[in-house]
Amino acid sequence: MSMPSVLAMVTVFSMIPGGVMSDTRGTQGLEAQQIAQGSTHLHRRLKRGWIWKQLFVPEEDPTPRVIGQLKSDYDRGEFSIKYILSGDGAGDAFEIDEYSGEIRTLKKLDREEKAFYVLQAQAINRRSNEPVEPQSEFIITVQDINDNVPQFQNEPYVSSIPEMCLIGTTVAQVTATDADDPMFGNNAKLIYSVLQGEPYFSVEPKTGIIVTSWPNMDREAREQYLVVVQVKDMLGLSGGYSSSTTVTVSLTDVNDNGPTFQHHLYTFAVPENAAEGTTVGRVMAYDGDSGINAKMTYSLEDDLEESSTFIIKTDPVTQEGLILLAKPLDYETKRRFVMAAEAVNDHVDTRFLDLEEFRDRTTLKIIVEDVDEPPVFLSEVYEWKVPENAAVGTVVGSVSARDTDTVNNPIRYSIDKRRDNTKAFKIDPNNGTIIVAKALDRETTNWHNITVEAKETTQSHLSSSVVVFIKVLDINDNVPRLARDYQPYICEGTQAGELIQLLSAVDPDDPVEGHHFYFSMVPEKHINPNFTIRDNQDNTAGIVARRSSFTRKDRTQYLLPVVVTDSGSPALSSTNTLTISVCSCQPAGHCPTGGVEALALSMGVSLQTLLGIVVCFITLIVLSILMLVVRRHRRKQQEKLEVEGKELELPETVSQKVLYYGETGGVGADLNFCQPAVPLRRHPRRRERRLRREDVRASIRMSLRESHLIGPDDDVFRQFILDRLTEADLDPYVPPFDCLRTYAYEGLGSPTGSLSSLDSSTTELEPEQPISNPRTYTVRLTPWYWGGEEDTIF
After folding, report:
1. Whole-prediction pTM
2. Which of 133, 558, 683, 748 is disulfide-compatible with 580, CB 3.0–4.6 A?
3. Looking at 168-177, 464-473, 754-763, which range is the least confident one?
4. Quick one: DSSP state of residue 46?
5. Which SUPFAM superfamilies does the UniProt record give (predicted)?
């Protein structure tokens, strides 16, 4: 009989009180009921609670099978009892036969997914649908089988141990887990073993701790090991599962090797003109260790003379010894250097080697090569001082260089013009003497840096240069002045003794003792009644009011000359005149510096006066604009009436003459003609005359028609003349000559006769007629452009 069948049978019999025993209890219960009917007191039968034991089912069993049975004491086999199952897995993993109470599995179960199920059972009477037993709870446990492979945790495993470590040194610990039930059999009992890595490493079978099993493992021989560890369940018995993992073990370095030079002698060559700090060569002492254990320090023996000419340093990256030149070389003085170099480990470990094994020595041989060297200056840098008032030609100093070669070639000196922008100095090419070439000014340039070049006169033209610093010393050649453009003001109502403005001064000069300025007022015959200067003896001074009640009505500005004197030798001074404005200050004592009020203050006028000026200016602008508009309007009217004006041209028989009526001796003076008589011509820039008014045109036409009927006393003629004069005065195109007049008609009836030459063009002049009235009747005409002495009369 198989194990599941036995378990099921045991389970069934453990759950059911027993087949025969169940019937017996039922019979005894029935007999007890019959006895109770004959007695006077009926004894009621008490219900017993269900007693369930745990049920078991093996995992991963795909065959549905009966795992147990539920049965009530009231079940007589008549199928009157209905069994109901609920809870975890009911209807999904388990089902119950509602007639017999047998519990069956529906699918295979996985203990690692769910280890047990909690279910509830209930027995119900089919007829009354009432429970015959109270609801009872029971547990179905899933039994484990070995169906899981053990798994390593925290992979990958990497560890390191120092080289040359002892046997049994712990390397690492590996850990594996098995999902099977550790409480059921040996399914989850694990054991560890080494598949790869022996004989260097071993593992504890139960704990998984890896330890060393080989002595004196050398990192320089092998730096890394791969250890493969296997784990098995079922205590390693056949039929179990297994898995493996790899542990990477690295050996860390310890200082178990000393430095060693590969050669006993190293030879180098260096030219004699090599600069200080030049790398002459490199040496390397090999050390099998790494990191801090391979660090070493190189040194030269101190007892040799050559050790002062060269130095050796350790390259922190490559651990090489760098041989550097510490002093200039001279082939003519010494041509070969021999010295010993030593390499010593910085960190020693006497557990592995003796102290002397952590150092090594070698010999260095350095040969100096001859080269043609440029001149060498006696000093690396020159620094001189010269006063700024030094005259042109003053000697500032001299430089000197020599040729160190055996030939000793002659040398010429020059100033590098590419670096000398000021051209303030010259140098003697033969002896190197530097003189002043032009006037100096410390305030412009206080330091001059020039480069002097020394060059051999041979074909090689070897040269060298040196920097010369020339400091220009200060002399007192600048007058002091006020530090800024002060605009002091005094508020109305300022009391006597109040500070108005704090003054300070500046001076481009730079005296050794520092600046010290003295402030004073210009000496006058009378003491300034308004202000005074108070020198604070700290290069500042204050303007102080001498009196009170300053008002703008009395005066808006005051001029105060201030004398500033320096402490140089000789002392220099300057006079600065300050304008002190009287201001209507704001409540906080501030004088406005912007806006209309500030502008009025700066102009020295009141605010009301300034506003009046502004209003007048605006009025003038408006009038100018109106005049331009009127003139443009008149110009348009003239262009419109241009055609009509052509109808008013004079007849061809009428010629125009220029007449001059002069009055030198008063009324009744002789009348003279303008000599010579020139016919009027149109001005090149003058446009055609255009008549503006209809009444003027009518007057002209009437005058032409009735000219033989009117005389100079006629109102029409007089009005005609006045209209022509007004037109001439207002016409902008008339030339400004007071003696020129143009008339379209001269008229008839003058006692003196006609002045026109209209009828004298072809006939001779008649004899003069005696004048009956020696006093001519004259009419004064308005002169052009406000004429004074000369009047035009008719």
Report:
1. 0.39
2. 558
3. 754-763
4. P
5. Cadherin-like (SSF49313)
In this prediction, residue 354 carries a pLDDT of 85
Greater pLDDT, 79 or 400:
400
The secondary structure of residue 263, as a DSSP letter, is -
Let me know how long the chain is. 794
Q: What is the mean pLDDT of the chain?
A: 77
pLDDT at 733 over 80: no
Asked if the model's pLDDT at residue 401 lies above 80, the reply is yes
* Res 628 pLDDT > 60: yes
For 126, which DSSP code? T
- Reduced to 3 states, what is the DSSP secondary structure of residue 119? strand
Q: Stretch 38-46: mean pLDDT, rounded?
A: 39
Tokens of 242: 């297994």
Residue 100 tokens, joined: 């017999």
* DSSP assignment string, 401-470: EE--SSS---EEEEE-TTT-SS--EEE-TTT-EEEE-S---TTT-SEEEEEEEEEESSTT--EEEEEEEE
Over pLDDT 70: what percentage of the chain? Answer: 73
651: cis peptide before it, omega within 30°?
A: no
CA quadruple 696, 698, 701, 702: dihedral positive or negative?
negative
* Distance from C-alpha of 535 to C-alpha of 21, rounded to nearest angstrom: 136
Given CA atoms 593, 599, 604, 606 in this order, what sign does their dihedral have?
negative
Please provide the DSSP assignment of 161-189 as one string: EETTPPTT-EEEE--EE--S-TTSTTTT-
Burial classification of residue 741, based on how many CB atoms lie within 10 Å of its CB (0-12 exposed, 13-18 middle, 19 or more buried)? buried
Strands lying side by side in the sheet with 336-345 = 265-271, 359-369, 336-345, 296-300
What is the H or E stretch that residue 621 is in? helix 607-640
Query: For residues 101 and 69, is the Cβ–Cβ distance under 8 A?
Result: yes
* Cα–Cα distance, 550 to 534 (Å, whole number): 20
DSSP state, 38? H
561: nearest Cα among 576, 549, 572, 571: 576
What does the alpha-carbon distance between residue 790 and residue 69 come to, in Å, rounded to a whole number? Answer: 160
Q: What is the pLDDT of residue 712?
A: 65
Strands 209-212 and 201-203: antiparallel
How far apart (Å, rounded) are the C-alpha atoms in residues 507 and 568?
11
Task: Provide the greatest CA pair distance for the chain.
Answer: 206
- Range of 413-422, 588-597, 695-704 with top mean pLDDT: 413-422
Please give the distance of CA 346 from its chain centroid, rounded to a whole number.
47
pLDDT confidence of residue 27:
33
Which run of H or of E encompasses 28?
helix 19-38
3-state secondary structure of 134: strand
